[in-house]
């Protein structure tokens, strides 16, 4: 999936140039022309990175940045004509991850975007890891890797997605229908045996007893209970 970038700028020409340039480099682009629209698009589009002008109508870029930082850690690159040292210091204080002054080089912008996303991905990979049974079982969702006693469990993609769906929702009971639709995109038409087969394979590869970690809820489906 291509990284998603939200471009926030009140100048139509800049939005148009950035959209064409970034799409050429395999980014998915959404745009906003004022601060109010930007906050709405952040929730709707859920971008991987935000390019944010500061001098915006409705709500200033500084305030937009502060509001985003109240509940999200989405990387923000401020792209603005405000170029004094004080402006830059304030930008980072508001929560920006990087700061680029207009006029700017598209090549430099691209390099900064790639660097920010690389750091963001590395941070995410380090941040999310699930460990069970005193370290015997380790699950790295972002790396799509499951280790049993330090060795790759060699799960298929479907098996991995079922496992991660369960562990990210501990205690929640999933019906076979829900798992089939969520993981495989399948409407429920007799896929109970398919899900059961995948669960059986997961347990075998992870060396789990029948109701160890992955619990069978009879007549309903499955849930995950870590130890």
Number of strands: 12
Give the strand line-up of the largest sheet: 2-1-3-4-5
- Which range best describes the helical content: under 10%, 10-25%, 25-40%, 40-55%, 55-70% or over 70%? 40-55%
Uncertain regions spanning at least 5 consecutive residues:
none
**Which structural class matches the secondary elements?**
alpha/beta
What portion of the residues fall into strands of 2 or more residues? 15-25%
| Element string (H = helix, E = strand) | EHEHEHEHEHEEEEHEHHEE
Work out the helix count: 8
**Mean of residue pLDDT?**
88
Tally of structural domains: 2
Task: Give the biggest beta sheet.
Answer: 5 strands, parallel
Global morphology: elongated
Radius of gyration: 22 Å
Terminal Cα span: 33 Å
């Amino acid at each position: 999936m291509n990284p998603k970038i939200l471009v926030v700028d009140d100048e139509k020409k800049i939005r148009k140039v950035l959209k064409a340039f970034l799409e050429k480099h395999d980014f998915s682009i959404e745009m906003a022309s004022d601060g109010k629209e930007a906050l709405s698009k952040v929730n709707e589009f859920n971008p991987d990175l935000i390019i944010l002008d500061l001098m915006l109508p409705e709500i200033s870029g500084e305030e937009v940045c502060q509001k985003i930082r109240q509940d999200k850690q989405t990387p923000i690159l401020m792209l603005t004509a405000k170029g004094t040292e004080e402006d830059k210091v304030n930008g980072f204080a508001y929560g920006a991850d990087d700061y680029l002054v207009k006029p700017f080089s598209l090549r430099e912008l691209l390099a900064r975007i790639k660097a920010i996303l690389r750091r963001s991905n590395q941070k995410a990979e380090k941040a999310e890891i699930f460990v069970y049974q005193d370290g015997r079982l380790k699950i790295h969702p972002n790396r799509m890797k499951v280790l049993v006693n330090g060795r790759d469990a060699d799960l298929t993609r479907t098996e991995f997605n079922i496992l991660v769906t369960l562990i990210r929702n501990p205690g929640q009971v999933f019906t076979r229908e829900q798992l089939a639709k969520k993981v495989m995109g399948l409407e429920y038409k007799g896929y109970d045996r398919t899900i059961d087969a995948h669960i059986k394979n997961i347990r075998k590869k992870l060396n789990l007893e029948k109701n160890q970690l992955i619990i069978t809820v009879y007549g309903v489906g499955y849930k995950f209970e870590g130890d």
